[in-house]
From TrEMBL:
Location in the cell: Cell membrane
Membrane-spanning residues: 31-50, 86-104, 116-137, 143-161, 168-190, 210-234, 259-286, 298-319, 326-347
Annotated Gene3D superfamilies: ABC transporter involved in vitamin B12 uptake, BtuC (1.10.3470.10)
Species of provenance: Mycetocola lacteus
Protein name as annotated: Iron-enterobactin ABC transporter permease
Length: 353
């Protein structure tokens, strides 16, 4: 039985199309290499991070622990203490970056990320209500953050939809909702006992310091479920930049697509915030840097995801080692990174004006 060969077709735009039995796979060459480079950097830094700590290990020791050939002490250090944190940085970076790509595509604005629009703040509100009012444990905090992020996303969408959904309106309404939720969060923090407020404030800085396997599992599952769904929708999502009439004329169900993208973006954000707290600016920075590196017609999803993983795992390594033995919350490092990006973006825009 003869198998149909894979026939590549090179397009002028830099895309290579592989056709197999009527199916086609489009690969933008520059995006492929950028994504591969980001993935290699992310995995390389992750491997190095497993060697860093109070008890330094060699890469050989780490590999032995991962393959089950190390002594019990080394195995426990790598598998129980360090690996969950590193995996959370990788998958959390992927989830946040993809969420940023979704919202920037929906709004058509480089500032349209979940931390700017307010979904991070909503997830934080849900977690605070669970921790400080209901008195739930880690599971209750996770559920509260998921509910808070989802409810905020639904509220912002419904308010923005009243006169037709536009990117600018979505951002402005999101900023307003975020400001109101921020006031609620501040009120909750000043009306509880000092010990509870300190615990909530540490969590609110965005930290990977206490990540355990039980915390990590939901984030990995949600990320792995949402990734193929977004890949399936991403070509249609790119048509949103052509305008509603053009996209509709090409067979895109605009309302259904927007609801699906919004839901996936909110779930991805809440999945990370529920476990690690609100980690700012990864969702804002990663899509725009990937767009500039790939030089394609729209935000590339996979390069953005792998770049987000690289950014968060590097930020976590800096947070662990900058003031060692004191470990900073990773959110502190990402805020510095995002602030630098915003300054650079402002300066570049002023030069073009």
């Amino acid at each position: 039985m003869n198998s149909a060969p894979i026939a590549p077709t090179l397009r002028a735009s830099g895309e290579r199309v592989f056709r197999v039995r009527g199916l086609s796979l489009r690969i933008h060459r520059r995006s492929f290499w950028v994504g591969l480079a980001c993935l290699i950097v992310a995995l390389g830094v992750a491997g190095y991070s497993l060697t860093i700590g109070d008890l330094p290990l060699s890469l050989g020791d780490v590999w032995a622990a991962l393959t089950g050939h190390a002594d019990p002490g080394t195995t426990r250090i790598v598998l129980d203490w360090r690996l969950p944190r590193v995996l959370m940085a990788l998958f959390g970076g992927i989830a946040l970056a993809m969420s940023g790509a979704v919202f920037q595509t929906l709004t058509g604005n480089p500032l349209g990320s979940p931390d700017i629009i307010g979904f991070n703040t909503g997830a934080y509100t849900g977690a605070l209500l669970s921790m400080l009012v209901v008195g739930g444990g880690s599971t209750g905090t996770t559920v509260g953050a998921l509910i808070g992020g989802t409810a905020t996303g639904a509220l912002v969408y419904l308010l923005a939809l009243r006169h037709g959904l536009h990117g600018y309106r979505l951002i402005v309404i999101g900023i307003g909702v975020s400001a109101m939720l921020g006031a609620i969060n501040s009120y909750l923090m000043i009306t509880v006992k000092l010990e509870a407020a300190i615990t909530a404030q540490v969590w609110g800085a965005g930290s990977l310091n206490t990540i355990r396997w039980i915390d990590l599992t939901p984030t990995i599952l949600i990320t792995l479920i949402c990734l193929p769904l977004l890949l399936a929708l991403w070509r249609q999502a790119g048509m949103l930049g052509l305008g509603v009439e053009t996209a509709s004329g090409r067979g895109v169900n605009i309302k259904l697509l927007r609801v699906a993208l919004l839901g996936l973006g909110v779930v991805l954000t809440a999945a990370v915030t529920a476990v690690a707290g609100p980690i700012a600016f990864v969702a804002l920075v990663a899509p725009q840097i990937a767009l500039r590196l790939c030089r394609g017609p729209g935000i590339p999803l996979l390069p953005t995801a792998f770049l987000g993983a690289a950014l968060l795992v590097i930020s976590d390594l800096v947070a662990r080692t900058l003031l060692a033995p004191v470990q900073l919350p990773v959110g502190v490092v990402t805020v510095v990174l995002g602030g630098g990006y915003l300054v650079w973006m402002l300066i570049s825009r002023l030069r073009k004006a």
